[in-house]
Amino acid sequence: MSGKHDQDRLIAYILNELPAEDRARVEAHLKECPRCRTRFEQLSQIGTRLNADAGTQTDPGNEEAFLVEVNQRIDAENERRPVFGLLRRLAVGGALVMLLLLLLRHPAPDAPCRPRAPVAQQRPDHKISRLAKHTPAVYPDFSGLLERGWPLAGKAPALSPSPMPAFPATPKLTEGVSLVFPKIKL
Amino acid sequence: MTREITDPDAQIILEIQHGSRDAFNQLVRRHQAAVRRLAQRLIDDEEEARDVAQEVFVLAWRELPRWRFKAKFFTWLYQTTWNLSRGVRRKAYRHQYREKPPQPDSAPSGNRREEIITAERHVAVRAAVAALPERQRQVVILRVYEKLSVAQTADVMKCKEGTVKALLFQALKKLSGLLQTENDYER
Ligand SMILES: [Zn+2]
Asked: Is A8–B179 a contact, with Cβ atoms under 8 angstroms apart?
């Protein structure tokens, strides 16, 4: 801090990080510089308290049991991993096949897209967002339609004669109710 | 500019990359105290801290085969311990904030009273550190508690040494403000 107000050195001094020679230099500067002295008074107390608190934690030291446990976890993971890897590859492969089939069997662009029944009718109560719960359902009732099984039964209906009722007028959207496309099971 | 990384763990990591579990165990022995200490500092619950510390080494075992020596291994250890402890830590510190040292039924005297006052002061310091913004808290824990050098702290925090110094100064100023308020209340 020779001559200038070196804040970093002052902090190193407070944290007891300086060699004796540098400490002496800081102390000499503090004697003659009221500005650094004020800063020192402001920070030294907190430095002392932090150092004291840092000293309270006992070093956990080296522990053989810790090492053994780490090794057990690694072994357990190594045993699990090949199975998981295989499952993951199968899942990814399956998903790709599904996507491909879905694309191939996708209905014509002018086929009607039906909204699902309102969220509130489908999900268990605890899964409904607070907003959706307090929003009156505005959709027409599709439950009859769903009971007939399409598209859940696995086979898309013939286009003519249509087993589906005419697509209802687009419901007026209310905040909190979302339009969701039906899941198609192949 | 690329910096030359001289990592004291380099040789041991090379052996691990050749599949040596013994070398890995040596690495765990070398660093487990530091990792466990940092995790314990960040997480109130001892069991959870131990769990996180173990997870750090399991991750290391997974990562080391791909290690490219672009950073010192201990830097990675501190960063990973910090990150894994984060989610757990927030919960722990909220708890610590509420926590008060045990209050005796009758007025304590002599040494016991001193002990309680000291314990209260430590709780206050930790609560004040916990109240710091993330980067300032990190710099205080790494520099003051873990005694890392400015350069090591900068490596762990992925910032410049000047930033570490500035953050530490800001943190100390803020802490002295926070603890001054607490002293005023005590009076
Ligand atoms: Zn000065």
From this structure: no
- What is the ipTM for the molecules in this complex? 0.81
Taking an 8 Å cut-off on Cβ atoms, the answer to whether A66 and B54 are in contact is yes
Which parts of B1-109 fold into alpha helices (H)? Answer: 10-17, 21-42, 46-63, 73-98
CATH architecture entry for B116-187: Orthogonal Bundle (1.10)
For B84, the token pair is 């894994």
**A62·B33 Cβ contact <8 A:** yes
Q: Distance, CA A6 to ligand 1 centroid (Å)?
A: 7
Neighbours of B5 (CB within 10 A): 14
8 Å CB contact of B54 and A59: no
Give residue for tokens 């060699």: A19
Delimit the CATH 1.10.10.10 region(s) of chain B: 116-187
> Nearest residue on chain A to B167, judged by CA atoms?
A8
Is 0.90 topped by the overall pTM? no
In this structure, chain A runs to a length of 186
Cβ(A171)–Cβ(A140) below 8 Å: yes
Number of C-alpha atoms within 13 angstroms, CB side, residue B145?
A: 24
Q: Identify the residue whose tokens are 């998903």.
A: A95
Distance CA A104, CA A153 (A): 18
pLDDT tens per residue, range A25-79: 999 999 999 999 999 998 998 999 999 999 887 777 778 999 999 999 999 988 8
Q: Does B7-97 carry CATH code 1.10.1740.10? A: yes
CA distance B42 to B39: 5
Count of CA atoms in the C-beta half-sphere (13 A) of A70? 29
Give dist(CA B92, CA B52) in Å, integer.
Answer: 13
User: Which of B40, B53, B175 lies nearest to residue A57, judging by beta carbons?
Assistant: B40
